[in-house]
Every structure is written in structure tokens, then in C-alpha cells.
């Protein structure tokens, strides 16, 4: 007793409520089994412990308590109570899953875990471990015989896998609870193997569930998105080299770049003879972002061949700064007039004056900006991913999190993307 009191901060019997909950949720035991259970109770981890296993123990304990209460009455006779308990159940399931993934990240080496690159096929809001709780609840419902509304056929296909993952979950939870009663500070090899087995099975279930219940990208769509990301990245690197944009803009995530990079990329792509925007290639090889605008792109490409190099450079500066050529030309003209006046006063006249095809540049600026802006409006989620990768590839110092405040509703923040493969499991 003194040892237990010392471990728990000297508070007498502060573990008694937890013991009672454990005994109530255990099946009926007799003799040595009951003695063994009581012995385990005296080795409960501290509620103040920062170890993930200790946090899991009490989160899982709360989940079992709610489950036991749900099983103790007829939900059809007390629907309000049942609804409140189900809401608590779902929140607690998410909490258990969050701690469980923390344990997996701590115990299992990253290169031995199941790949999550398949998540790039998912809608943006369904990516990440924050969906683990709802997916677990869905698996439990499917395993119990329920079906997702308007997805009855898909539910029948998923049911065997749902039953399997619920069994896997129960096995892993049992192993984790047992380890919690031994030592919360370490992960034995057999537990690590069980966590890795769970990780692969969960990846398989997650991909199967989401791909059947939600629209996901095809491999070809992802491939074209990655090619467009490469175009964005190459354009940004060239723009930095040509001083069209600055490192300071990149590091501060200047909102102007959210418009400038897609616009400059269109121009950069049209300048390449065999690049992504080569209009002579097969229609299916051109990314879907640009397919509705092939006629305009062809006109822009033809007009570019009639411009001088300095005119193209001027167009690039306008696209990079979101200042249309008419406005830029007015500013230049004002500067020229000031210089002329100064030369007249000094009795020195310039030999030549700069000539620009302002009208052509204005038309090209509006055409390119229109295509890029429609891309932002119609493919905002894809654009966020491509810009995220572009920023990370072209920054001197990469950051773990990228948060941006932008002027438009279409682009609010940059999220993650990487290559995509489907999960496979050796089990």
C-alpha cells in the first residue's frame, strides 16, 4: 500500500474508482483468475504519466466503460440516452486512435510502416489520421451488419474486411493493455510486430473504405498533377533566377505568388517546344487543367512568336507582379517623360525611345491570367497541393508546416502532397 501511495503522489486509494470500473468490465472470474486480476489492478499506470501507453490505457478504459453502459440497456427504449452515449463513444474512439497512432510512430520504424501515399487519391478533407475515429466507427457498424445509406452494394463488399479490422483492433488493444500493466516505458518486440501488423491492415481498410465510398483520383490524374507540379517548380526556379520574384516573397508566402506562379507557368510551358503544354501532343497527355483552353493557348503561343525578347520579358514581369501592361506602360511612360524633360533641360535628347506592343501584351496578359484564374477557381484543392510542393522545392530552408493568409477564398492554405502508391500488406 505504501508503495502504491508513493507512486501515485501519496493520495490514498485514488486508484479505487478505476479498479471498480475494471472489475465491472471484466467477465465473471473465480479463484486464481480473480486474484490475478486484482494483482494487475495494483500495477495500474499513473494517470499523470506522459508515456503514450499510459495515456492509451485510460483512454481505452473510458471507451470500454461507455461500451459496457451501451450494452447494459435497450437503446430503442431510451433513444436520447443512447444517442448521447454514441456521441461520447465516437469522441472517445477518436481519442484512442490518436494515442494509438502516437504509439505506432514511437514504436515502429517509419520505413517499415505501411505507405500512406495512397491518400493523395482522396479528397483533401479525408487525408490524415483525423479520420481514424470515424473509420473505426464505420467498421464497427459494417461488422455488425449495418450498411451505409445509398452505398448498400459497397457496404456488402467491405463487410468482410470490416470484420477483420475490428478483430485486429481488439487484438492490438488487448496487447497494449497487457503491456500497460507491465511497463509503460518500453515496447517489446512482439508488441512492435503486432503494431506493424495492425498498421498494414488499417492502411488496407482505409484505402478500401474511402475509395468505395468517395470519389478518388485515378492514377493518370495524379500523374498529370505531379507533372503540373514539376512545371510550377521549374517556372519558380527560373523566375527566381531571372529576378521576376524574390526569395523574400517565397519565404513570406507572398499572396501575389499564388496568382503569379500559375500564370508564369502557362507562359513558361508554351515557350517549351516539347514540354507539358506542347499543343502538338495527344489530347490526353495535356493535364485536365488546361484542356478547356487549348484554342486560347494556341493563339497565345502564336502571338508569342511575334514578340521581341524584351516584350516577352515585360509580359513576364507583369504576370509576376499582377500589374497589367497598360498600367505598367503608363508608369514607364511617366518615367520616360521625366527623363526627357531632364535631357531637354540639359540640351541632350535621347537617340531612341523604347517601343512596346502594349496592346498585344495586354491581350496576352488577360488571356493567360484568365486561364490561370479559372484553374484557381475550378481546381483550388489541387492547386494548394501543387503550390505547397513548389514552395518546399524552391525554398532555401524547408519548413514542417506551411500556413498562408491569402486574398482569395479559393486559396486559404497550402497542404501536403507526395507521390502515390496503393497500400499492400504481407499479412
Would you kindly provide a brief summary of this structure?
The chain contains 16 helices and no strands. The protein has helices at residues 2-7, 16-25, 32-41, 52-71, 79-107, 132-143, 152-180, 189-213, 219-241, 247-251, 255-271, 294-304, 309-321, 325-345, 358-378, 380-394. The two termini are 45 Å apart.
β content, as a range?
under 5%
Number of helices: 16
Average per-residue pLDDT, rounded, comes to 80
How many strand units?
A: 0
Give the CA-based shape.
Answer: elongated
Radius of gyration, CA atoms, in whole angstroms: 31 Å
Assign a percent range to the helix content: 55-70%
- What structural category do the secondary elements indicate? mainly alpha
Commentary on this structure:
There is one protein chain. The chain is mostly helical and 427 residues long. The chain is 63% helix and 0% strand. It has 16 helices and no strands. The chain has helices spanning 2-7, 16-25, 32-41, 52-71, 79-107, 132-143, 152-180, 189-213, 219-241, 247-251, 255-271, 294-304, 309-321, 325-345, 358-378, 380-394. The longest helix has 29 residues, at 79-107. Residues 1-16, 346-355 and 397-427 have low confidence and may be disordered.
Secondary-structure topology with pairs:
Blueprint lengths: L1 H6 L8 H10 L6 H10 L10 H20 L7 H29 L24 H12 L8 H29 L8 H25 L5 H23 L5 H5 L3 H17 L22 H11 L4 H13 L3 H21 L12 H21 L1 H15 L33
Features:
single chain, 427 residues, mainly alpha, disordered N terminus
Amino acid at each position: 500500500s505504501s508503495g502504491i501511495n508513493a507512486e501515485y503522489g501519496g493520495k490514498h486509494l485514488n486508484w479505487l474508482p478505476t479498479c471498480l470500473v475494471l472489475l465491472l468490465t471484466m467477465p465473471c472470474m473465480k479463484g486464481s483468475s480473480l486474484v490475478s486480476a486484482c494483482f494487475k489492478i495494483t500495477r495500474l499506470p499513473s494517470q499523470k504519466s506522459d508515456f503514450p501507453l499510459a495515456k492509451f490505457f485510460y483512454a481505452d478504459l473510458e471507451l470500454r466503460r461507455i461500451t459496457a453502459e451501451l450494452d447494459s440497456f435497450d437503446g430503442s427504449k431510451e433513444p436520447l440516452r443512447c444517442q448521447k452515449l454514441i456521441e461520447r463513444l465516437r469522441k472517445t474512439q477518436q481519442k484512442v486512435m490518436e494515442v494509438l497512432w502516437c504509439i505506432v510512430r514511437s514504436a515502429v520504424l517509419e520505413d517499415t510502416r505501411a505507405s500512406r501515399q495512397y491518400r493523395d487519391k482522396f479528397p483533401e478533407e479525408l487525408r490524415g489520421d483525423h479520420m481514424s475515429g470515424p473509420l473505426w466507427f464505420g467498421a464497427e457498424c459494417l461488422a455488425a451488419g449495418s450498411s451505409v445509406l445509398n452505398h448498400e452494394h459497397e457496404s456488402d463488399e467491405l463487410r468482410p474486411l470490416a470484420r477483420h479490422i475490428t478483430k485486429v483492433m481488439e487484438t492490438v488493444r488487448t496487447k497494449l493493455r497487457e503491456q500497460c500493466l507491465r511497463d509503460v516505458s518500453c515496447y517489446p518486440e512482439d508488441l512492435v510486430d503486432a503494431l506493424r501488423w495492425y498498421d498494414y491492415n488499417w492502411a488496407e481498410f482505409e484505402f478500401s473504405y474511402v475509395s468505395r465510398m468517395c470519389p478518388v483520383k485515378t492514377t493518370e490524374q495524379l500523374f498529370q498533377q505531379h507533372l503540373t507540379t514539376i512545371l510550377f517548380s521549374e517556372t519558380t526556379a527560373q523566375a527566381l533566377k531571372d529576378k521576376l520574384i524574390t526569395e523574400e516573397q517565397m519565404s513570406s508566402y507572398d499572396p501575389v505568388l499564388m496568382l503569379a506562379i500559375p500564370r508564369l507557368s502557362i507562359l513558361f510551358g508554351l515557350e517549351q517546344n516539347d514540354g507539358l503544354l506542347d499543343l502538338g501532343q495527344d489530347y490526353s497527355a495535356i493535364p485536365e487543367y488546361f484542356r478547356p483552353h487549348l484554342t486560347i493557348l494556341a493563339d497565345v503561343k502564336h502571338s508569342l512568336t511575334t514578340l521581341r525578347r524584351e516584350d516577352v520579358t515585360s509580359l513576364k514581369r507583369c504576370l509576376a507582379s499582377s500589374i497589367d501592361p497598360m498600367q505598367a506602360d503608363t508608369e514607364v511612360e511617366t518615367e520616360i517623360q521625366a527623363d526627357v524633360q531632364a535631357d531637354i533641360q540639359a540640351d541632350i535628347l535621347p537617340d531612341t525611345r523604347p517601343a512596346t506592343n502594349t496592346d498585344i501584351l495586354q491581350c496576352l496578359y488577360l488571356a493567360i491570367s484568365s486561364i490561370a484564374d479559372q484553374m484557381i477557381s475550378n481546381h483550388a484543392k489541387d492547386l494548394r497541393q501543387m503550390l505547397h510542393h513548389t514552395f518546399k522545392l524552391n525554398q532555401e530552408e524547408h519548413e514542417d508546416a506551411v500556413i498562408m493568409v491569402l486574398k482569395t477564398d479559393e486559396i486559404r492554405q497550402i497542404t501536403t502532397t507526395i507521390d502515390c502508391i496503393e497500400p499492400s500488406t504481407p499479412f
